[in-house]
Design a protein that fits this description.
Strand content: 15-25%
Radius of gyration: 21 Å
Number of helices: 11
Oligomer: single chain
Number of domains: 2
Structural class: alpha/beta
CATH architecture of the largest domain: 3-Layer(bba) Sandwich
CATH superfamily of the largest domain: FAD/NAD(P)-binding domain
Order of helices and strands: HEHEEHHEHEHEEHEEEEHEEEEHEEEHH
CATH class of the largest domain: Alpha Beta
Bound molecules: flavin-adenine dinucleotide
Largest sheet: 8 strands, mixed
Distance between the termini: 35 Å
CATH topology of the largest domain: FAD/NAD(P)-binding domain
Length: 415
């Protein structure tokens, strides 16, 4: 595959862009692969990429029922941060954040990583204590965050109303190296690198059944016919419950719609990401100038990919309260994605009751930020058959053994 470079852009400009290659191939499925990954979202593609890069395994197919990145990876609000409370979470999210820093160079694909800083507002005394505790925990974990006071909040984001009609801003948990990245580009960059290693990314290929013999996985049924494999990775986010059912086991996850919206574009007015958990809303400004706004998750299980109208109303109300200058903005678009929520709000990366069948799911409202770390850990799990240090705590068995990784505060606002 030809490398992208400034020279290539100049060369193609002179020859009417006739020399660009397709970013990834679209092959027909083989009858068998060493490893099949179900789901070409960020986590599925990153898993395939690190299987090749870290473990030298390239006879891999990634099967996708729609188009790659068309699930939550292409629908999220792109916030990247690693200031979680528990040690296993801080480790995997910080691994992901640090991989994001050089991912554009590594993949030779501009994922537009923008470490502009993420601020989580403390608007009650309970939140002040909670975020101060997280800042202390992060210091011990080697994650750079700090608790800042209201003056610094105003300095970092002048459009915030510090006094607020209901909840004044008392401070914030600030992670200066957090930020955003272009979501589709993350999927596209990994897909291009996987295709370059000879892996097959097969779109419009829905997995409809999982085949096994003697308690070991042997292949999958798909809308393009049966395909055999030695190992199987199920990485389908909101559809994890359905696919697990095909493999003969149940998961402690619930699927709900989470939604987001964007405003009309305006001039640059905000160069940080702000999350306001108490009033429940979060926002950043895209490079095009749109305000990218995250809303809440539905309180009932569904697969609609839309989200309820009352959440839009609540989110907009929360943001006008926090940023009064938004009150005259028009909203352009709204959409939803189906997220897979676990009881402790932490992901599941581990073995399943079916032999050689592995799982990466349960990222809920916050798995975009984890894509490089989740892919890294899942590739190690599948390649070695056992979880490595990053994944060990996130096993499915923790729900039976009561070893929860409680991140309900860190993941309190949908992000
Ligand atoms: C509105 C919204 C805002 C969010 N904001 C943030 C944020 O700011 N920061 C953050 O970190 N996270 C955020 N998230 C969460 C984040 O998007 C997800 O956790 C993450 O994208 C999950 O990635 P994934 O690869 O596991 O899943 P997905 O990207 O959903 O990929 C799973 C893929 O599996 C495919 N699939 C499903 N069933 C089958 C089948 N039977 N056969 C074949 N393929 C199948 C689907 O089509 C899909 O493409 C947000 C999510 C939403 C919906």
């Amino acid at each position: 595959m030809k490398r992208y470079s400034a020279f290539a852009v100049a060369r193609e400009a002179l020859r009417r862009h006739s020399g660009w290659e397709r970013a990834w191939a679209s092959p027909e499925p083989q009858s068998k692969y060493d490893i099949i990954i179900v789901g070409a979202g960020g986590h599925g593609l990153a898993t395939a990429y690190y299987l090749g890069k870290n473990h030298g395994i390239t006879n891999v197919a990634v099967l996708e029922k729609g188009w790659l990145g068309g699930g939550n990876t292409g629908r999220n609000t792109t916030i990247i941060r690693s200031n979680y409370l528990q040690d296993p979470s801080a480790a995997i999210y910080e691994k992901a954040r640090s991989l994001y820093e050089t991912l554009s160079q590594e993949l030779n694909y501009n994922i537009m990583f923008s470490p502009r800083g993420v601020m989580m507002l403390a608007q009650t005394h309970h939140e002040v204590r909670g975020y101060q505790r997280t800042a202390h925990a992060n210091a011990l974990q080697g994650v750079e965050t700090e608790y800042v006071g209201p003056d610094r909040v105003k300095e970092l984001c002048p459009i915030i109303s510090i006094d607020g009609p209901r909840y004044p801003v008392l401070g914030a948990l600030w992670q200066a190296r957090g930020g955003t990245a272009r979501h589709d580009a993350v999927a596209w960059g990994y897909a291009r690198a996987c295709s370059d290693m000879g892996m097959h990314i097969i779109q419009q290929c829905e997995v409809t059944g999982v085949r096994s013999s003697n308690g070991q996985v042997s292949g999958v049924e798909t809308t393009k016919g049966p395909i055999d494999c030695d190992k199987l990775g199920l990485i389908v986010a909101g559809y994890s419950g359905r696919v697990a059912e095909m493999a003969g086991f149940r998961l402690p996850v619930e699927s709900v719609a989470l939604q987001a919206l964007v405003s009309e574009p305006i001039k640059p007015c905000m160069d940080v990401v702000v999350m306001a958990n108490t009033v429940h809303g979060y926002m950043s400004q895209s490079d095009k100038g749109e305000m990218v706004i995250g809303g809440g998750a539905d309180g009932f299980n569904n697969y609609t990919q839309r989200g309820s109208f009352h959440h839009i109303e609540e989110t907009v109300r929360a943001l006008i309260e926090t940023f009064p200058m938004l009150s005259r903005l028009k909203m352009l678009r709204q959409w939803g994605g189906i997220v897979d929520m676990t009881g402790d709000r932490s992901p599941i990366i581990g073995k399943t009751p079916l032999g050689n069948c592995f799982l990466n799911c349960g990222w809920g409202t916050g798995g975009f930020k984890a894509i490089p770390g989740g892919g890294w850990a899942t590739a190690e799990l599948i390649a070695k058959g056992e979880p490595g240090p990053l994944a060990r705590a996130f096993s499915l068995g923790r729900f039976r053994e009561g070893r929860f990784i409680d991140e309900s505060v860190a993941a309190g606002v949908a992000h």
